[in-house]
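hey
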């Protein structure tokens, strides 16, 4: 399976707009600002008076739409679009979204999904028994098949009944000839926001950075369990369930979302700065300079510098022109990938004691390579500070980390990792420090966040994944292993 040169794989990005003559172009622009959420494939479906047009393909948005004719072939007053990073199913074109479904009553409908369903295997089996023929292999399609086979009377009732059969993480955008609909799972694992254009067009998308991109004003977050219905008459808010428990993914704040996005009222950049400040308090160290690992940890590094009083400098740069290289998943090639991407500004680091701040360690490839690079550039010492807790447990709700095997934090203690990456010291942020840095989203015991990757406390049963999880935990002794720290 091809694998990108990244420790953490992104999720997916959604963008939809209803009531604008330039719908497909605005969807392209919105998706462009969500490209960080998925780089495997992209697609847009436009709605021209009830007639759908679709373009989709493998690769980055700019690659998929490099032929200008593709955009001109998407006329209409509404559109939905998607950028994908697979969590389920293969990497082929059939799994690139939006997906299309026949809908005899009205013609057809399209859907796009961010997240990962935890009962997809079970549902697929049930639907197969009923004779359903699948068009793709990912989990996303299941909602469309459930709607098509539902005995409810109209589209919204069919949708609501179907959403109630899904488990796991799902932010969905759907479009029929007459409406655009958004729905969010009962835990609200993924961010989903509503905005409005000056001329009244409604936008629904994964992050506020996409609203900014198209000049839309933020209206509100989509709440867990909600179904948002947008028609030519405006927007209505409905529910498929009120049995909800907000557990938004803490990794959105740590790494995934763009720093200029605001998720549920909290600026991602400011939250990351607070994470950096918190690890500076939890694990102080004497040093000459703080440097961050571009790009994702720069906010946390600034926060560390501000809280510690140690000055921040640009000790590393990221090559802006690194081609999107898909490589075989071997460690040697991953190291080469990181080396093509990151380099050191020697004048900042030579002869200095350095605090190196990163947001996360997944396999340890990045920190291992960078510590060596800094030392070769003359750094006296390198103290690594990670602005999130030790990543030990898989995510089943939409991030492509579904096994503990490659997580260095699941397999080694912090002192062992420190030695493996060649650092002079290593410290991670505590789970409590992380939660406080993001801030309370509500007064529930989990403060509205999912921190399962760090503490193994999943907010839902794991369904299809439970048996595999139990055996990995037993194999690694993970819960007892917490005392490895
Ligand atoms: O331990 P590893 O397996 O190397 O993975 C961890 C690294 O991966 C992520 O960065 P990424 O390479 O995605 O780049 P970015 O910060 O520019 O998004 C993360 O921010 C760490 O730097
Ligand atoms: N990362 C995602 O949100 C992926 C959506 C869906 N599970 C897929 O694999 O296509
Ligand atoms: Mg990074």
């Amino acid at each position: 399976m091809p694998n990108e040169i990244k420790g953490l794989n992104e999720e997916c990005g959604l963008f939809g707009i209803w009531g604008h003559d330039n719908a497909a172009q605005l969807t392209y622009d919105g998706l462009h600002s969500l490209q960080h959420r998925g780089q495997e494939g992209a697609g847009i479906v436009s709605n021209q008076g009830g007639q759908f047009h679709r373009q989709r393909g493998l690769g980055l948005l700019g690659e998929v739409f490099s032929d200008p004719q593709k955009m001109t072939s998407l006329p209409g007053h509404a559109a939905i679009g998607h950028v994908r990073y697979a969590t389920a199913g293969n990497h082929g074109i059939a799994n690139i979204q939006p997906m299309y479904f026949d809908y005899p009553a009205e013609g057809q409908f399209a859907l796009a999904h961010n997240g990962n369903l935890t009962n997809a295997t079970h549902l697929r089996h049930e639907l197969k028994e009923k004779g359903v023929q699948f068009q793709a292999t990912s989990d996303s399609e299941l909602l469309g098949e459930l709607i098509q086979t539902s005995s409810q009377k109209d589209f919204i009732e069919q949708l609501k009944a179907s959403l109630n059969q899904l488990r796991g993480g799902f932010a969905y955008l759907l479009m029929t000839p007459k409406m655009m609909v958004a729905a969010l799972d009962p835990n609200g694992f993924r961010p989903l926001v509503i905005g409005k254009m000056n001329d009244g067009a409604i936008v629904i998308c994964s992050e506020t950075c996409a609203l900014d991109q198209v000049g839309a004003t933020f209206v509100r977050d989509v709440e867990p369990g909600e179904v948002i219905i947008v028609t030519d008459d405006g927007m209505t808010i409905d529910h498929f369930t009120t049995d909800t428990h907000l557990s938004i993914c803490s990794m959105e704040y740590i790494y995934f979302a763009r720093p200029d996005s605001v998720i549920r009222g909290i600026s991602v950049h400011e939250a990351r700065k607070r994470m950096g400040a918190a690890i500076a308090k939890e694990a102080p160290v004497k040093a000459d300079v703080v440097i961050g690992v571009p790009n994702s940890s720069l906010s946390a590094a600034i926060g560390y510098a501000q809280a510690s009083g140690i000055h921040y400098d640009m000790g590393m740069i990221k090559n802006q022109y690194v081609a999107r290289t898909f490589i075989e998943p071997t460690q040697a090639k991953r190291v080469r990938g990181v080396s093509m991407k990151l380099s050191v500004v020697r004048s900042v680091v030579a002869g200095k004691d350095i605090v190196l701040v990163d947001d996360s360690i997944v396999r340890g490839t990045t920190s291992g390579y960078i510590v060596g690079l800094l030392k070769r550039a003359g750094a006296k010492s390198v103290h690594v500070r990670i602005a999130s807790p030790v990543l030990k447990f898989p995510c089943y709700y939409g991030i492509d980390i579904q096994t503990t095997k490659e997580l260095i934090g699941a397999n080694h203690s912090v002192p062992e990792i420190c030695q493996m990456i060649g650092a002079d010291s290593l410290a991670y942020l505590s789970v409590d420090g992380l939660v406080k840095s993001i801030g309370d989203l509500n007064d529930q015991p989990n403060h509205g966040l999912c921190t399962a990757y760090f503490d193994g406390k999943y907010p839902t049963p794991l369904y299809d994944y439970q048996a595999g999880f139990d055996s990995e935990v037993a194999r690694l002794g993970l819960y007892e292993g917490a005392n490895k720290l």
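The longest helix spans residues 268-282. Confidence is low (pLDDT under 50) at residues 1-5, 324-329, 481-485.
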